[in-house]
UniProtKB/TrEMBL annotation:
GO MF entries: 4 iron, 4 sulfur cluster binding; metal ion binding
4Fe-4S ferredoxin-type domain: residues covered: 296-317
Alphabetical UniProt keywords: 4Fe-4S, Electron transport, Iron, Iron-sulfur, Metal-binding, Repeat, Transport
Annotated InterPro entries: 4Fe4S_Fe-S-bd, 4Fe4S_Fe_S_CS, FTHF_cligase-like_sf, Helical_ferredxn, LUD_dom, LutB/LldF, NagB/RpiA_transferase-like
Protein name, entry field: 4Fe-4S ferredoxin
Lineage: Bacteria, Pseudomonadati, Bacteroidota, Cytophagia, Cytophagales
GO biological process: lactate metabolic process
Pfam families noted in UniProt: Fer4_8, LUD_dom
Natural source organism: Flammeovirga pacifica
Amino acid sequence: MSTQYKTHQEGAKEFNKNPDRVTWHDKALWFVREKRDISAHSIPEWEELREIASQVKAHSLSHLNKYLEQFEENAKANGVHVHWAKDAAEHNQIVHSILEKHKVKNVVKSKSMLTEECGLNPFLNDRGIEVVDTDLGERIVQLANEHPSHIVLPAIHKKKEEVGELFHEHLNTEKGASDPTYLTRAARTHLREKFLNADAAITGVNFAVAETGGFVVCTNEGNVDMGANLAPVHIACMGIEKLIPKVEHLGVFLRLLARSATGQAITTYSSHFHRPAEGKELHIVLVDNGRTEQLGREDFRKSLNCIRCGACMNTCPIYRRSGGHSYTYTIPGPIGAILSPGKDLKKHSSLPFASTLCGSCSDVCPVKIDIHTQLYKWRQLVMKETNYEKSKQVGMKFAGKAMGSPSLFNLMGKVGNIFLKGPRAFIYNGLNAWGIDRELPVPTETFDDWFKKNEKKNDK
Ligand code: SF4
């Protein structure tokens, strides 16, 4: 598996060793962000949709117990087996026991960040079950023995030439071939065989509807339908926050999801599942794994609104320039940085700092999560409850004092000016992270001097 870094800084440093990669990664994600903007602005009711979605989520989360029970009752009445898992270990056990009962050896799995979160693949592999990820991006990272670096575009960190090499090694494609159409066709042939031989299909869930007991899975490749319709057993794994009360709410979320994720008006396949086909079994595993705890944290419960569109990643200047693998949690980017501290504050203490707090993530979020405010609140908790970088604590205290005193602030400006005009070693040394990879402009005057001069001019 790809390296799990101890801190975001460590991972970002590694990613930044290849400036070309940083540039095209940044550009590729910004392109998706721009597509999202065009698509969102093409419908006048966009802001209204965001507001409705945010309110539906707030309502569902406040009545989660009621809707979960309603969902279970309706799903069971439809002939679906419903299971409850309090944590990742229980989730993996449940899935394994279903597979064991059916003597399953080959599983096809569609994209599911929940199963990543629970570490399902290695758990099943250790028990002699082959799990093939069938989303193209996920299959690429699986063959490369890596984690997804993005929740919608799992292999966005890889160039087509790298995918070509990988496919040559594993799928026997021509050496040096990197044409995306050629590679996609090879992947399709390879996956078709896996679909036809699968004993079971595992999928994620995008939305589950309490009033019907049904659920929806969105894909652009149709791999969910191939897996679930061919295999005799279908297991859908779902975080309990994915529930919405009524079918009429689905339209709101489906419109927001596709536009926010890739700029499409609608995802190519929005597959609805209600009951097992004749002679087949349909299971749904409802997973908590820390969600109830997060629900109890007033400042952070809104993070459970997330519909995993990835828009906050595409817009984040830090994510785009540090790559998804630099984060210490399964879900990277701004949303990962507010979900992970609730799981393990110490382990993920660097993530709330992987942000400029520019607020762009909150602006694009289709379900109006106040991401940058939560990042700021997690920072305060990290400082209070962990031993996070003492040097940062001292530095921040000093910065607070300087910014609270105009005379000290102006003095600091003057001192900074002297340093910036001084010998290069003042700024560009190993002790100053800002001097690494950055050529700072040489200042002509302090802001205070500039302001005083221009203030007088304007008064004339
Ligand atoms: S936090 Fe918002 S923008 Fe980010 S993935 Fe979730 S829904 Fe999308």
